[in-house]
């Protein structure tokens, strides 16, 4: 490969363009879009359930992140309840019980990850 004259020291080798494509692909991994879907309004530590007030819909199987000042949790939705009844889909405006895999706090934001 031809080196640009005078711009690059002779000991530097410029990689082929294919290397740049690989680098860009590596950077784009796990770059899912985060959509704010709700906030934690209460947490029950003994049973590991967060009460989440939703601003957007949520389904079982969705990937979510819960984030706050001291919280950073990523998981897949496995269990949701509305009025103590298991549900597969929760709509905007509902307050649901969401099984969480770690400690969360009131005011934490809940994001849905969209690939």
Shape: elongated
In CATH, the architecture is Beta Barrel
Computed structural class: mainly beta
How many angstroms does the end-to-end distance come to? 37 Å
Strand numbers in spatial order across the main sheet: 5-4-10-1-2-9-6-7
List low-confidence stretches: none
- Helix and strand pattern: HEEEEEEEEEE
CATH class: Mainly Beta
Main sheet makeup = 8 strands, antiparallel
Give the count of helical stretches.
Answer: 1
- Sheet-strand content, in percent, reads 35-45%
Task: Give a description of the structure.
The chain has 115 residues and is mainly β. It has a single domain (33-114), classed as Translation factors (Elongation Factor Tu (Ef-tu), domain 3), CATH 2.40.30.10. The protein has one helix spanning 17-28; strands at residues 33-44, 49-54, 58-59, 63-67, 72-76, 80-82, 85-86, 89-90, 95-99, 109-114. The strands form 2 sheets. The protein has an 8-stranded antiparallel beta sheet, with no helix packed on it. Strands 3-8 form a two-stranded antiparallel sheet. A hairpin with a 4-residue loop joins strand 4 (63-67) and strand 5. The two termini are 37 Å apart.
